[in-house]
Amino acid sequence: MEHELIEAINLIYNPTSHSDQRRAATEFLESIKSLKEAPFLGHKLAHKNNNQQDHIRHYGLSLLENSVKFNWTKFSSEEAEKIKLLIQDLLNEGIKDINEEKLFTKEKLVKVTVEVAKRMWPMQWPDFNYFLKCLYDQNPTTRELSVLILRSLYEDVFLYEDVVAQKRKSELTTALFVISYSYRVLGASTIPSTTVSLELNHSAIYLTPNLDTFLSNAGLAPGTKLLNQNIFSNLIQTNAGDVEGWLSKWTSDLFILHQNWCNEFNAGYGKSAEISELLIVSILSAISVAVHWASLYAIIDTAIVPRLLDLIISPSRKIRLGVTEVLFVLFSRPVSSNQEAYRYDAVLKPIFEVPLPSGNIGLENLILAWAKNHCLVVVDDIDRAEQNAKVSEDDYIVIKRLAQAITALGENYVCHKTTKKIPNLIRFLEEMLVLSDHPSLIVAMQPTNFWTLILRHESLKVSEEVLAVMPPLLELSAKKVSKSEAASKSNLNSNYSNIDFDGHTEQLAFGMLIRQKYLEICKLIAINKPLDSYKWMLSRIEYRFGSIPNPEELTNLTGRNNLNQYFFAYLTFSADGLVTFDTPFYHHFEADVNIMSIVLSVLPYVIPEGNTILKAELFNSVELLLSKVIGFESNDPLLIRTKIDAVTAFSVMIPYDLKMLSPFFAKLFEYVSFHQPFEKSLVTSSSSGWYPQLSIETKIIRKKAAAFFAKMGSTMPNILIKIYDDLSRTVFELVEKDLINYQEQNFLMECLLAIIYFNTALSYEEKIAPFQAIVNVTMRSFEILNNFQIFDLRIPDENLGNVMQEFLGIDFLAKNCNYFTLCGCDSIFLGDALNEKEKCSPLVLESLNRTKATRFQCSKPFFSISQLTTRTLQVKKSEDFNADHELWGDYALRVVPYLIGIIRGLHSLADPAKWESLPPLFYNTLTSVTYMERMLILGRTIDPTENEISKLNETYLEKELKGIKEFLNHARDHSQILPHGISTKSNYSRHFWLCSSYRKQALDIFTKLNSKTVGVKLSGGLVKLDSEWKILMDKGSALDKKGDEFESLIDEMNYLGGDKMEDISDEIFAEKVLRNLTRSVVNFFSLIFDVKKSTGEPPDNYFQHKELAEFFLKSVAIASPLMTFLFHILVYQDSTSSRKSVNICTHLVNLIMPSDENSNCGFNPYHILFGQDLVVSALDCLRDPYHQEVHFEAVNLIGLIYSKLLIVGKIETNDGLERIREIFSGLPGKGIQATVKFENEFVSRETFKEQVMVLREFLADVKGLSVSQRGRKPTSFLLNISEKNLLVRPKIVKSNVLDEEDNSDMMENLFK
What is the pLDDT of residues 1083-1095, one digit of tens each? Predict the structure, then answer.
């Protein structure tokens, strides 16, 4: 057997082996794992004396591990004892020397030992701790193994959701406390008690520790169920005389080992020094896990912090890193209320107050460590050093960890709510400034949360130290707000960025996140020191708005001359040179404007009351500043866009100084009708309010200014009503003179409407006339639509497709394809170009322009009414505003026919038969994805330049078809936005949903829905989605899994800098579209079955949308395909959709299935659906390692179904329970007996959490679940989370392993 095993293993590792041979060998090796002889074979293969290769020894250890983890219950107590002895033999004699043995071999042996200990210790293996101490004292090799075993045991019991550890939580927790803590921490008193310090008195004689005293020392209530009194007493007797505990022993040994290392290193004994260093790092690794759960009383007792602070300046980089990681974990752990008494003595006192044995306070050693990692021996000029020193990648790892540790100290201890005053705080704040100014974006990001906390701290924010650091912090924040800092490509910055980021796009996204953080810091400083911040900001703005960029600050225009004249104008580059998004001047200009906006935003809340002179001076200064900003002249579109932000920043001051109203709105109106010099003739020659020929920069400026008008109307209606007549007159003059297009016009109408709509100074009767005057402008546009057949609701559905194609101009284009083949110019030159090249008929041109005008006339009213209803009906206002929703009256009923007409037209184009007679180009173009759509789907910034370049190679026909496509996209948007805007319920009988006639029409639609039809549609959609996902999963995912929190941040961030973002392949794009579609479907289901937030609602009010949910649940013909749809989504390889599907299914199971024997049993068909289809889907999810993030919820769902079906089984015959039993019996290696045994143990458990643990153990050998249990560990501990994810992840909530009694049934957490 041994020979066959070795041959099979070598066959797998042989690169020349055939795949069939490998498959057969793998099956053979897997079959060996289930044999009773497996652990003995494993021991023989793994032992060093048998001289096997490392990969064979590793397989031998795998045989041992598999036997313990999955077949332990099959062994008798005598056999279990033999396995334990085999492992002890390997630990004592079977491992190579510490610096020769491979790490993966040591880790595997450690894991096997821990698996046995979790099952046998302390009752069946009472001398386990004595065995570990013997290993520790034996030699360096076994000492390292002893430390690694305890570290792994700490992890499984206190950090990870290990099934076995959870089932024996009380026993293992008690045992680990007893062997890890000293007698002093465990509550023993001394005879005589001569010591007054918290340090352990090794010369004292200790009485027997007392559990209640221990709990009192730890600030815990006596009698906690998480600790076992009998085990506590038994282990004290077993370990009699061993009063030190592992934490104290390790801490003491660190000093001795480090002394040995220094001596050996200095003497040139490289091998001995390497062993000492390895042992120190191993001990530090174990302590890093221990301090995560150890009580602060124990931290004081062992004097861990001062001893670590002496080691943090060690010459060894590996030791410095190990020490830093321990401190990072300690500083990051939340401190529970019962540990508050020890917070200062455990951490703050040794760092800020009490000198170390070296003479420094701990803080100085932290700062010295920062300098040492930047190649400095002393801390002098450390700021300059970190800006210029090129550190190695290994040193940079230590720097990042140290930054995390120092920041965690500030966040969790310095800024704690109980902190009143801290010695040497100014020294700490100076070091935080040094960290904040680091050229590494990752390091510079670390302190941002600390600054926001300390600037909000009730006591510290007014302290002398914090007030003194605000000016330099403000200057630093201004530097970080500048986009040039985020996009910096300096050599040193690039060096760090190349290490931290996958590309420039990721770097930019992270840089912009830092920018937002420092903007918040600026705001907090302005709140704390408003007048000083204003004076500082005033000097910056005066300088910036009075300066002219020098040539070096402007982007070189070389390479632009090859573009045609029109496109050159479109980009608004001139011969004089204009700034771009990459221009340093623009970065500083835009940053200062942002800071000005922030400082001005806080002034209204801090204007000194009673000091009339100071208030007058402040207002005069702000008025002069506004004049300065308005007077800044520039023809540069990008600077003008930023200048609009500067002007609008003063809006917060208008309620306090109405003299600003006139210049403020005068400037905004100037920008609403803005055009560049070369565009004057284009604007004045138009008479339609439609300016497609204007450059994109001009359109952005106009839209930005107009949109702010709309915002102003909503935010200060009572103030603007005072100048309403002037505003209204100016708006209508602009409209009548055709100086603005329909988008700007609509924003201005929104402003006027909001002023009237939300005004509290006007009565309802006074509002009616101006309200109707504004809305009727849009309603008259709807009346024009009566001239088009598409809005005739009498047209039969079968004829509607032809009518829609004619309305869009598709038929016309198909008949005149030969006229539309020219490339290059914009469509405003269409007539001249066609007449010259193709001698196009004037009738063709006339028809072409007519169809385009028709589409524009149709889009305009829908766009307008959507904007108006969104502005008024969907804006949440405070009680200070009087929103008269009744003003809309019956306008909704007048819009509905047109809305139905456009929806019918859109649906008519879905029939593929309508496209068969048309050229393939038509269907392909209208269903293709444009550049803008692609960027929106990818969550990327739309580059206007790139968008226009993509149009240069289009034919006229493609241009016209894409114009139709754009119209259809807008029509779809309006058909979704408008019903939502006019049908949402509210407290004011708000929206048209509550108009009785409209409500009746909506409900009539539901009554006409045929359950069979809905079921068929759902089934058809599932088949389509299933096939798409099958293709994707068969070929393998092209898109990286979005488990990384920072990677998902890149898609979510709205980076407005205009920088070009990298595109992705069509394959990845297609997958992203499929995932987005899947998420949209599951979100739709989530809305249907959305539950109420309140937990006290009666069952009939469980759903947020009760009528909608009942419609889908009352008929099995609808509910069955709908639930099947949900079950399938659970296994698609998209964790977001899968998790949401599990949550919805959990809601449904909890609602439909009975909660106890007295409950209604519900519908039997659902029991079968849950007991068979849903369980199968959940098991498929567990089998797929891709879904390991969802495995926890999936197991909970199966447990919930099983528990509910067991309740039903007590009441009536239950097919669902029989189905789930059959499924479980059919699992590999289970069978009927194993299933019955599982069910008996499942039923015997009192709480749901205990039942789930039983289920988790039963399913432990399911392929994917076993992988996920291994996979959870590397990513769940603080030190194994990437620094990028740590910066964006939520705060840790759990603070102590004994904080809460673990006796809940976990149901309340199941639905979060």
Answer: 888 877 877 655 4
Is 777 exposed, middle or buried (CB count within 10 Å of its CB: 0-12, 13-18, 19+)?
middle
> H/E element holding 670?
helix 661-672
Residue 15, burial from CB neighbour count under 10 angstroms (0-12, 13-18, 19+): exposed
Q: Which of 909, 894, 965 is nearest to 932 (CA)?
A: 965
- Residues paired with 206 in a beta bridge: 190
Averaged over 674-698, what is the pLDDT?
66
**pTM recorded for the entire structure:** 0.76
How far apart are alpha carbons 752 and 867 in whole angstroms?
Answer: 13
**Centroid of chain to Cα 884:** 39
| Distant-in-sequence, close-in-space partners of 664: CB < 8 Å, separation ≥ 6 | 626, 647, 650, 651, 654
- The full DSSP string for 173-233 is HHHHHHHHS-TTTTT--EES----SSS--TTSEEPPP-HHHHHHHTT--TT-TTS-HHHHH
1240/1245 Cα distance (integer angstroms): 9
Cβ-based neighbours of 384, under 8 Å, separated by 6 or more: none
Highest mean pLDDT among 309-323, 542-556, 954-968: 309-323
> Strands 205-206, 190-191: parallel, antiparallel or unpaired by DSSP?
antiparallel
Helices (H), 941-995: 944-951, 956-981
Residue whose structure tokens are 């979704």:
976
Q: Which of 539, 409, 536, 404 has the alpha carbon at shortest distance from 476? A: 536
Q: How far apart are CA 552 and CA 579, in angstroms?
A: 11
Q: Which long-range contacts (CB under 8 A, 24 or more apart) does 942-946 make?
A: 943/1058, 943/1060, 943/1061, 944/696, 944/697, 945/571, 946/1060
Check the CA dihedral 842-845-847-849 and report its sign.
negative
Coil, helix or strand at residue 483: helix
User: DSSP of 1083-1135, one letter per residue?
Assistant: HHHHHHTPBPS-S---GGG-BTTHHHHHHHHS-HHHHHHHHHHHHHHTTSS-H
At residue 839's C-alpha, the angle toward residues 837 and 840, to 5°, is 110
Question: Which residues sit opposite 1103 in a β-bridge?
Answer: 1091
> How far, in Å, CA of 841 to CA of 835, rounded?
8
pLDDT band at 432 (very low <50, low <70, confident <90, very high): very high
Short-list 224, 201, 204, 205, CA closest to 214:
224
| Bridge partners, residue 355, by sequence | 361
Going by C-alpha positions, the residue among 1052, 1065, 1045 that lies closest to residue 939 is 1052
Cβ–Cβ < 8 Å for 95, 48: yes
Half-sphere exposure of 723 (CA within 13 A, CB side): 20
Beta bridge partners of 1091: 1103
Q: Are residues 918 and 817 in contact, defined by beta-carbon separation less than 8 angstroms?
A: no
223: left (phi over 0), alpha (psi -120 to 50) or beta: left
* Terminal CA-CA length for the chain: 52
Q: Give the start-end residues of each E strand in 630-773.
A: none
**Structural element, H or E, at residue 87:** helix 77-93
Contact 442, 467 (CB under 8 A): no
Q: Which amino acid, one-letter code, is at 560?
A: R
Instruction: Note the pLDDT of residue 682.
Output: 64
State the Cα–Cα distance between residues 220 and 187, nearest whole angstrom.
Answer: 13
Decide: 1029 and 1186 in contact? Cβ < 8 Å. no
CA 384 to chain centre: 35
- 600-602-603-609 Cα dihedral, nearest 10 degrees: 170
**What is the Cα–Cα distance from 1216 to 1232, expressed in whole angstroms?**
17
